[in-house]
Amino acid sequence: MDKTCDHASVGVLVWRDKRLLLIERKKFPFGFAPPAGHVDGDASFEIAAKRELEEEVGLQTKSLKLVFAGRRENNCRREGGSWHRWKIYEAETEGEVKPSQDETKSFDWFDGERIKKLQERTKRYLAEKINESDWQKQPGLEIFWYQWFKELKEEK
């Protein structure tokens, strides 16, 4: 059973050769996203980021660089989870990707073109041009990440 939401989440961006590591989530919220999760009582956001990276994709963290911090409205599957304080990091990692059997349906390294295709699919889903069943079979970017990537693009 899921816990009550702690309203504190981390996300970890892992880049290799100008491609971003994204996982396809097995559980709500469905879609492709960087490794992410709740802080869950860890001593710091940084410790939570390292834990989530290892839990979801088996990578060890060599260094973290904070790229975003702030509050965002976004739903999660936990009770009361309608908003979160986020810290998003870029990570330098070591090791090979070993996806979590429990949380990860698939993973891949996405270049800008493939990320744009995922964004377009999410845009169509939000416009109700893709039904829930089809979305779960072939999702785009997880909605939170779609919105965040869109904001980043507008800032540039």
Structure, explained:
By secondary structure, the chain is an alpha+beta fold. The chain has a domain at 8-111: Nucleoside Triphosphate Pyrophosphohydrolase (Alpha-Beta Complex). Helices cover 30% and strands 35% of the residues. It is built from 4 helices and 7 strands; from the N terminus they run ββββαβββααα. It has helices at 45-57, 112-126, 132-137, 143-155, and strands at residues 8-16, 19-25, 32-33, 36-38, 60-73, 83-94, 104-110. Strands 1, 2, 3, 4, 5, 6 and 7 form a 7-stranded mixed beta sheet that branches. The longest helix has 15 residues, at 112-126. It is globular. 31% of the residues are buried. The mean pLDDT is 89.
State the gist of this model.
With 156 residues, the protein is α+β, with helices and mostly antiparallel strands.
Offer a few descriptive terms.
7 strands, 156 residues, 30% helix, alpha+beta
Task: Show the helix and strand layout.
Layout: E1 8-16, E2 19-25, E3 32-33, E4 36-38, H1 45-57, E5 60-73, E6 83-94, E7 104-110, H2 112-126, H3 132-137, H4 143-155
Parallel strand pairs: 1-6
Antiparallel strand pairs: 1-2, 1-4, 2-3, 2-7, 5-6
CATH topology of the domain at 8-111: Nucleoside Triphosphate Pyrophosphohydrolase
CATH architecture classification name of the domain at 8-111: Alpha-Beta Complex
CATH homologous superfamily placement of the domain at 8-111? Nucleoside Triphosphate Pyrophosphohydrolase
Strand count: 7
Q: Which class do the helix and strand fractions yield? A: alpha+beta
Taking the sheet with the most strands, its summary is: 7 strands, mixed
Q: Which percent range describes the beta-strand content?
A: 25-35%
Distance between the termini: 41 Å
Helix count? 4
> How large, in whole angstroms, is the Cα Rg?
15 Å
The helix fraction, in percent, is: 25-40%
One letter per element, helices H and strands E, the order comes to EEEEHEEEHHH
How much is the average pLDDT? 89
Q: What is the CATH class designation of the domain at 8-111?
A: Alpha Beta
Shape: globular
- Poorly predicted ranges: none
